[in-house]
Amino acid sequence: MTLLEPDDPATSSGYADHPERMGFFTDTSVCIGCKACEVACKEWNHVPEDLLGFTGMSFDNTAGLGANTWRHVAFVEQPRRLGRQESGLVAADLPAGTVEAARDRTPASLGLPSHDGATGSASDMEFRWLMASDVCKHCTHAACLDVCPTGSLFRTEFGTVVVQEDICNGCGYCVPACPYGVIAKREDDGRVWKCTLCYDRLTVGQEPACAKSCPTDSIQFGELGELRERAARRVEQLHEAGVESARLYGHDPGDGVGGTGAFFLLLDEPEVYGLPPDPVVTTRDLPAMWRHVAVAATALLTVAAAVTWGSRT
Amino acid sequence: MPTKEQVLRLLSRGHDYAEIAELLGIPAGQAYLIATGVAADGGDTVTRAQRDRAGMLPSRSQRLVNPREVSPSARGDVHEWIRRRAWGDSPMQAAAEAGS
Amino acid sequence: MNPLDRLRSWPVLRQLADTDPLGRGAAVKSSGSRALQPRTATADRVVKSICPYCAVGCAQNVYVKDEKVVQVEGDPDSPVSRGRLCPKGAASLQLTTGSGRLHKVLYRPPYGRDWQELDLDRALDMVADRIIATRRDTWEWESAGRRTARTLGIAALGGATLDNEENYLIKKLLTALGVVQIENQARVCHSSTVVALGTSFGRGGATTFMQDLQHSDCIVIEGSNFAEAHPVGFQWVMEAKARGAVVIHVDPRFTRTSALADLHVPIRAGTDVAFIGGIINHVLSNDLYFREFVVNYTNATTLINEDYRDTEDLDGLFSGFDPGTGHYDFDTWQYEGMRAVPVSGERDVDHERRTRGGASIRRSGHGETHGSGGPSLEGTPHTDPTMRDPRCVLQILKRHYARYTPEMVERTCGIPQDLFAQVCRHLVENSGPERTAEFVYAVGWTQHTDGSQFIRAACVLQLLLGNMGRPGGGIQALRGHANIQGSSDIPTLFNLLPGYIPMPHAHQHENIDDFLRADAAHKGFWADMPAYLVSLLKAWWGPAARPDNEFCFGHLPRLTGGHSTYDTVMEQLKGVCKGYLLFGENPAVGSANAKMQRLGMANLDWLVVRDFSLIESATWWQDGPEIETGELKTEDIGTEVFFFPAAAHTEKTGSFTNTNRMVQWHYQAVEPEGEARSDLWFLYHLGRVIRRKLSGSQDPMDAPILDLTWDYPTEGSLGEPVAEAVLAEVNGWDATGRPLSAYTELKDDGSTACGCWIYCGIYAGGVNQAARRKPAEEQNWIAGEWAWSWPANRRLLYNRASADPEGRPWSARKALVWWDAAEGRWTGYDVPDFPPDKAPGYRPAEDATGSDALSGTDPFIMQADGKGWLYAPAGLVDGPLPTHYEPQDSPVANPLHGRQRSPARLVYAHEHNRYHPSGSEPGADVYPYVVTTYRLTEHFTAGGMSRNTPYLAELQPEMFCEVSPELAAERGLIHGGWATIITARNAIEARVLVTHRIAPLRGDGKVVHHIGLPFHWGPNGHVRGDAANELSSIILDPNSHIQEVKAMSADIRPGRRPRGPALVDLVRAYQRRAGITDHTGTEK
């Protein structure tokens, strides 16, 4: 059940005529962590508030994507240098005992640099603060779409993946299907919700609310092909500027989900941002599995038939 | 929805977006997005390559999307009121007389 | 739908019959999806507006359907914002339409336990009665034998979130009622800016505009957290960065701004003068200044009075200090051979007696009158063009900063020498004819006891480097509220009249001629002050203002010293000020020493609060912190409280002036609901009702209010005043009723009226220039046809300095304006900030006056000598040059001088305002850490517009403190846990965020730890917490009356704070341990 033309999901979803595929390129290297995207999205889509409370996860009190958060800004404080940036910070000068005791108390790593416990004079610290706005990937091979039994989840003319709330029956099959953990159910409502790439706005030529609002144009909206070209040039530019860690994520049509409609420029490994390093559309093996089922069923029937016929003769 | 080529073809024939919208039965802004790949409400952030594209409007593309805009900038009733204030101020009139 | 169509639309059939066999797209598109339309396109109309949050002034599109606002998003045409909005601007829909807002008037009777509803008209009537009664009871005709004609019994606070037209009516009405205690957020935020920039350059506002940042080669962001406090403006830093500019962020914390900077320099809070002084020393010692610029465009060559003594000579004092009064006499600071300047300055022999040595003027912050027009001078300066004379400004500067070596910077600021060297290198490399550097600052600089001097230091440096008046150069002052610039220009401030004309004093100015002679310069544009003042008086008192009664100059109440908001709090505590009106400001959270703010209000007879919801300043009597501690009891509080729900920016028409002096009009999209009304409505009808009640009165005290012109047209079912008419009055007209086009048309004979001379021209031709919205794509980067800026729509000030003395650009790369000899005019990309036809070669005659007295090479046209002031002989009461003093409460001894604190700072000794021992004073170690307060992107100032807006509140839901792992280890603080922070004023609790982003700083063999505190929380709202301002004291910069909240000492301990009386006990226990008395920290 994989799509026939990897990069043109709209055509393989039955649209004879349709526009160029549209998507997001989120360049996290210019993100200022302001969360305008989170708010603009909620305002446009009337998404309810989450109010999780103080999480202690740097400046991230939204925690992750979900039914009530369709754009989520991650904050990662790391003991690493970002290109040629000078943080001017100094490493913590902690007594050994304190560090050990602290480890016992704090089960989760919160990004503090690990120490070997030795004290010493303070030294210049490598430090960087990464910020990134995450969103539904609008995969080329979208597992949520594959498993949806009601046709609620569907591929639009723009190549995006949208939940049709007038159809969704809340079965929840799509929730575990997503390799990124994006789509989720609203408990008080019963249906699943996620980013629509502002489908309604696109129908009149308006860009998605988050892209429009983003103060530094970290979130860029446009034709996917053009965005991929722009992204490739940006990565080159960053490498030349000494930011070796810049790389793209989701841009490659050869990856496990066929490339994504919303792809990213990251400054570290995907895991650092809470993203799966090698996402695979969870329905990838379904055709093979069904074939096996078919073979097994055929074999079983053949054996059963043979036994039945055989016992008759 | 139409393809990019379909909209560009109509543009090359000299139609504007309002006409294209009529012909294709779609919103004018949608035609703009499809033709150019640029949103109609995108702001002054187009790249040089984008600016030279067929179908790009140099400015005010948001009007393809918005309903009517209400923003009056010169009110006649205010002008009247100013004149009443000035003419009713006899010391001011006297000073102007003396000065001229 | 007919049965056949219904069948055809069945997805299963579509799937089988059509091109989408797997049912993934076309076949399953539902009817809902097919009918999908965004509410932007289906709205009835779109109305143009401006964001009400910070001072970037992002343009907004407001969509209305069925007379309700259904969407608010960015307007892509704006050259400033390009359609973008930060999270706050993006939350405008919820802010204005959400359930956080109230729509009914509430009333609390004296000693009442709870609110009751009250009819709007009745409430307005009651407030009018209170004002009339209190005014009568507290009326003062004279003080110490001089006529004051005022009431100190009433005060007002608020205006930075209001429209210019609303501020205009507040100032006009209350002034006519004899109220002088009129203040707003500008006092506590950027008042230092007006003093410092005004004194150095001639105008007290940002010298450039945000879009011009893209042209800078080096941007130093210091005392500002640009990306967090002005996110949409920050896009222009990113543009510069994309073009290869170096971005440097100097801040005690590594913030979201630092994350995008090339270099972050951690600095000990409160030591910026030492840092900038170090750079100045580096530039001077190594002859790295832009010599031709400095010689021609600054006062570097001017000789100073031979009796001048520097802080280097007197261990931290300038000459002329009187420890008895705590004031400086400025005579020895003057230019050689020149007359004393207006602050102390009249030739009248009566002067000393009348002004008691000028104390009244000094106390009133006269420096702020240089918002538009620097201090005036009598005479001509003596100069040494070779700059070798030891008494020339350049040499004085060298000696003054000689000890600000890299070692001293390291000791004082905690900045390693190699880091310091990098900053110096970047700045020097990026200044000069071919390159420019820009400084961006905000309240990290203004909010200190010597905040004006912090900014002055950058002014000195930028003049030395030749960056003033040039593209990509200058000084960007980032103000923080939608209309805080406007509320300074059309000021709801006690010491100013519109256009930075000083409010007259009881002592110094007897009549209008004395006033004008004392304050008007004889050279420069300020020489036309008579025309500005008379035109203002004509606007306010119309036909009653005549030549034979000094145009009603006597109707203005007089000042007798400082009447700032903090002085008002003291007057409230003393029972002198009995009535208070709050207009969209929340002092119980936003002003220093929150407890004193509340105790002051508890002493009032009546309080009026206008806001969106019940802010802390409205409810303290019921559930404030003192109720919890038992210091106050609700049933013992006699304050009568009125709460009036206010209209949102989408519900009224008016203008906001952004941080770059650009005035933008916003239109009413819908009418306010329920009893919510605009402040324009409230002020206008309040004035109408008061005048009705007083009509026929023969009492001379009522003449100003009855003579006042107060007849604006109204419209609509609610009787909303027409804002454009108020704007027209601000603009002014002549006797024919023609709106004026420029302030040069103003006359001093009473034939013109003008409510604010620097805004003259905003309604030129009867067209609202502030409403212009020509898209960015249709203009150059200056975008002069979008809205309107003062002065005269110039966007980049002092731009004459972008050309050399001959009028040629210093380089092609940095061309902005230049002299066109063929045309005989200045021309270029921006409106020249210079007389258009004054040739570079023009030299004034000996007896020239006014602007004719300035030459063709005097770019700072609002300065009396036309020069940028490296050394300020006037305008600042605490010194002509910035020097480093420690903050009032500091754990560090001043490494530079024997004088620990700024000698001229304003001290307010009070049992609830105790200061800490500092430096090497015994007990300083009881408060060993440095607290610095700041903003977060997600919230807005005192929280009234964000804590009740769920989409914002959930992003930063709890008050927290940021501490380094070292400090956490030292004090046993646990990440995610709680901490209590204590000062001599109060103690608060906060969640703990342990982070490396707050570096411990090492200097002088000592480690200094910072505690970072956001200041947005208070006990009310959707999300709650303790207010950082519980901890701060009232200790003020003497020039601007601004409080010091950016650096103070404190202790921190793990765990939640005590509740009830135990909280007070904790604070007192600390005071005892530190040996604090009522004298601690009050030395002069």
TrEMBL record, chain A:
One of its GO terms (molecular function) is 4 iron, 4 sulfur cluster binding. [4Fe-4S] cluster 2 binds at C41, C195, C198, C210. GO terms for cellular component: cell envelope. GO terms for biological process: cellular respiration; formate oxidation. Pfam families: Fer4_11 (PF13247), Fer4_4 (PF12800). [4Fe-4S] cluster 3 binds at C136, C139, C144, C178. It is found in: Cell envelope. Binds 4 [4Fe-4S] clusters per subunit. It comes from the Bacteria. Transmembrane segments: none annotated. [4Fe-4S] cluster 4 binds at C148, C168, C171, C174. [4Fe-4S] cluster 1 binds at C31, C34, C37, C214. Residues 22-50, 127-158, 159-188 form the 4Fe-4S ferredoxin-type domain. Its cofactor is [4Fe-4S] cluster. Keywords: 4Fe-4S, Iron, Iron-sulfur, Metal-binding, Repeat. The keyword Repeat applies. Its main location: other. This is Formate dehydrogenase iron-sulfur subunit. It comes from Nonomuraea jiangxiensis.
TrEMBL record, chain B:
It comes from the Bacteria. This is Uncharacterized protein. It comes from Nonomuraea jiangxiensis. The lineage of its organism: Bacteria, Bacillati, Actinomycetota, Actinomycetes, Streptosporangiales.
UniProtKB/TrEMBL annotation, chain C:
GO terms for cellular component: cell envelope. Its cofactor is [4Fe-4S] cluster. SUPFAM superfamilies: ADC-like, Formate dehydrogenase/DMSO reductase, domains 1-3. It holds the Pfam family Molybdop_Fe4S4. The keyword Membrane does not apply. It is found in: Cell envelope. Residues 44-100 form the 4Fe-4S Mo/W bis-MGD-type domain. GO terms for molecular function: 4 iron, 4 sulfur cluster binding; electron transfer activity; molybdenum ion binding; molybdopterin cofactor binding; oxidoreductase activity. Gene3D superfamilies: 2.40.40.20, 3.30.200.210, 3.40.50.740, Dimethylsulfoxide Reductase, domain 2 (3.40.228.10). PANTHER family: FORMATE DEHYDROGENASE-O MAJOR SUBUNIT (PTHR43598:SF1), TUNGSTEN-CONTAINING FORMYLMETHANOFURAN DEHYDROGENASE 2 SUBUNIT B (PTHR43598). Belongs to the prokaryotic molybdopterin-containing oxidoreductase family. This is Formate dehydrogenase major subunit. The lineage of its organism: Bacteria, Bacillati, Actinomycetota, Actinomycetes, Streptosporangiales.
